[in-house]
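Hi R.,

As promised on Friday, here is the backbone we talked about, encoded as structure tokens. Could you run it through your design pipeline when you get a chance and send me back a sequence?
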């Protein structure tokens, strides 16, 4: 049976990223998206974060990731986007309330979006911007002797050529270390992840790949395969990792869903609580405004039962724009209702929506 969902419009504000975390330390999860945060548990009380640059029907906010940057016990926001070309953090004002102050981390060029991974096992995720025109890098929060953030970051440039469109994490060669996936190959993590540059293996070409590119053992043979959406074209595919008797690696492409376009963000989670993870994804509505193939097709959000590579599609939402919704550039899955089932928060140019998971 498919999971059933209760859809609710939180706000018509057209921001494309969101996050879920406890903004005001009251013990309740809140929703953050763009210029506003929405107070839990009912998300009806709206608070201003700050003004955000709007340009060409986009907003300069392609990530709203929570991190206590300044060590004051309140979660701040890491952000960045294409037009501002700058990685930034917004300071949570804490108990005083009011608007948030924004600080630049570094001007690094156009940022497609950002993902986060604790690459060195320090307990705090490192910041990995996807900067298609620049080499892959990450930023590490500098902490004090008590492990609290200091508001400063160290930069590590691990690539030597332009990263391209697409970014992900996964152990490709089975040595227990998480590698970095790009649209044209993978960066092999060395024994010390702070050593630069990492060795690049140009083994595949994934097009305008999703962020993230997901590494997952689809077949159950112990090798991580790749699950990739086309962020600005039609297609959702998986690439089977094949290693021959001499150790040579190749990748065999399999279609998952060639009928939909603009699969920009992907998520693996056990959405139906059956003990196996599903793939959750959907259309980023008007990803290049109306410039991408399939821009005027219906929009939707879906989950796929992986089933060893058979990928059975289930609809969360589907229909014409204005009736159905997509899932933006950075959606979020978390149990907001408190019943143990993972809910979905979907931002986008068509508004911010909460999909409550009602179970099968």
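Update: got your reply. Pasting your designed sequence below so it's all in one thread:
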């Amino acid at each position: 049976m498919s999971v059933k969902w209760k859809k609710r419009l939180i706000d018509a504000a057209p921001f494309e990223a969101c996050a879920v975390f406890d903004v005001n330390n009251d013990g309740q999860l809140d929703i953050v998206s763009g210029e506003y945060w929405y107070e839990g548990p009912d998300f009806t009380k709206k608070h201003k974060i700050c003004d955000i640059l709007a340009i060409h029907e986009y907003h300069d906010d392609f990530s709203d990731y929570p991190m206590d940057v300044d060590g004051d016990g309140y979660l701040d926001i890491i952000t960045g986007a294409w037009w501002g070309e700058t990685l930034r953090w917004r300071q949570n004002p804490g108990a005083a309330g009011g608007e948030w102050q924004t600080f630049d981390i570094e001007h690094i060029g156009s940022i497609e979006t950002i993902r986060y991974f604790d690459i060195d096992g320090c307990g705090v995720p490192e910041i990995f911007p996807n900067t298609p025109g620049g080499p892959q890098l990450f930023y590490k929060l500098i902490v004090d002797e008590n492990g609290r953030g200091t508001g400063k970051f160290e930069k590590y440039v691990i690539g030597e050529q332009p990263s391209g469109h697409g970014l992900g994490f996964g152990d490709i060669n089975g040595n227990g270390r998480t590698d970095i996936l790009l649209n044209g190959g993978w960066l092999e993590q060395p024994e010390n992840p702070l050593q630069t540059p990492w060795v690049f293996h140009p083994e595949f070409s994934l097009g305008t790949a999703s962020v993230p590119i997901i590494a997952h053992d689809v077949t159950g043979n112990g090798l991580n395969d790749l699950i990739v959406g086309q962020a600005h074209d039609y297609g959702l595919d998986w690439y089977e990792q094949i290693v021959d008797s001499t150790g040579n690696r190749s990748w065999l492409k399999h279609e998952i869903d060639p009928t939909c376009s603009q699969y920009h963000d992907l998520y693996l989670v056990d959405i139906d609580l059956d003990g196996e993870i599903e793939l959750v994804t959907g259309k980023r509505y008007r990803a290049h405004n109306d410039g991408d193939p399939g821009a005027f097709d219906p929009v939707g959000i879906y989950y796929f039962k992986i089933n060893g590579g058979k990928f059975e599609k289930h609809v969360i939402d589907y229909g014409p724009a204005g009736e159905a919704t997509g899932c933006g550039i950075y959606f979020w899955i978390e149990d907001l209702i408190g019943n143990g089932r993972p809910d979905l928060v979907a931002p986008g140019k068509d508004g911010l929506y909460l999909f409550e998971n009602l179970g099968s």
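One thing I noticed while checking it: The chain has a mean pLDDT of 97.

Thanks again,
M.
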